[in-house]
Amino acid sequence: MKIGLLSTLNHPMLPHYLKSLHSEGFTEITVICDLKALSNKDLNIIDERTSGRFKNIEGEHAFTYSSSLTNSAFYFVRNHNSSESIELINKLQLDCLVNAGTPRKLGKPILEATSIGVINIHPGRLPKYRGCSSVEWSIYNNDDIANTVHLMNEEYDAGPVLTIETYDKHLFSCYQDLRCHLYQSAFDLLPKALKGLNTGKYKFTEQNENKAISWQPIGDDKLDGIKANFPLIKDPLECS
Fold first, then answer.
1. What is the rounded distance in angstroms from the CA atom of residue 178 to the CA atom of residue 171?
2. Which CATH number do you get for residue 213?
C-alpha cells in the first residue's frame, strides 16, 4: 500500500505518525506538505492539552527524521487542494492519503484522488461526538473516550467509520495525561487500521446521521472544571 501523509512541516504530530508507520513495516511513505504552516494558535492548543509533551520528537525535526525512512519522500505544495497537489498524487500512484495535520478543509478533488480516499483519526466516538472539543464533551458527559478511524468527506467528521478504539479515562491521573494517551494511541492505531483495511479485517461503515451530534467548542469555564475534577464531572450536560 502506497501511503501519502497530508501535513505541514511544523506540525508536531507528523514525526510521530512517521515513526509509528515505519516501526510497523510501512516504508513506502510520501509526505505532502502544505506550505501553510500550522498557526501559533493551534500549536498553543496542542501544547496546552499535552503540557508541551509533543513539541518535538526526541529533539528531531520531521524533515530530519524522514531521512532515516528508506522509501519516504517529502513534497511541498502551495495548497493541498491545488491542482499541483492532485497531479502529484496521481503521478505517485498513491493508494491512500492520511490526514496527519493538513491546515486545510479538504475539497472533493483531493478526497477522491486515491482509490481508498483520505483517512482521519478523530478523537471522539463517531457519530455521537463530532467537533474539535469531542474529548472534553465526552469527559463532561461522563461518556467513553475514543479514537475513531474514518474516511473523510466534505463534511467535518461525517465520513464512513473504519474502526473505533475506546479507553478508560479512570486509568489516567489528569486531563493532560489522557490527552497525551489519545494522541499516542492514534499514532499506534493508524498502522493497525491500515493493515486491517488492506486485509479486509476492517470495512468502512456509513455513520447513522440520526445519532450524529456536532458539538461546539467547549467554554473555558467547563474546561477548567474538567481539569479540576477529572475524571468525573457531576451533573453531565443533557444532550438536546
1. 8
2. 3.40.50.170
Dist CA 215 CA 240 (whole Å): 11
In a domain, 102, yes or no: yes
Structural domain of 170: 120-174+204-240
Terminal alpha carbon distance of the chain: 42
At 237, the pLDDT band (50, 70, 90 cuts) reads very low
Instruction: Provide the whole-model pTM.
Output: 0.91
In a domain, 68, yes or no: yes
Please give the Cα distance from 186 to 141 (Å, whole number).
22
Whole-number Å distance between alpha carbons of 120 and 194: 11
Q: Contact 18/64 with Cβ under 8 angstroms?
A: no
Q: Which of 22-31, 32-41, 51-60, 128-137 has the lowest mean pLDDT?
A: 51-60
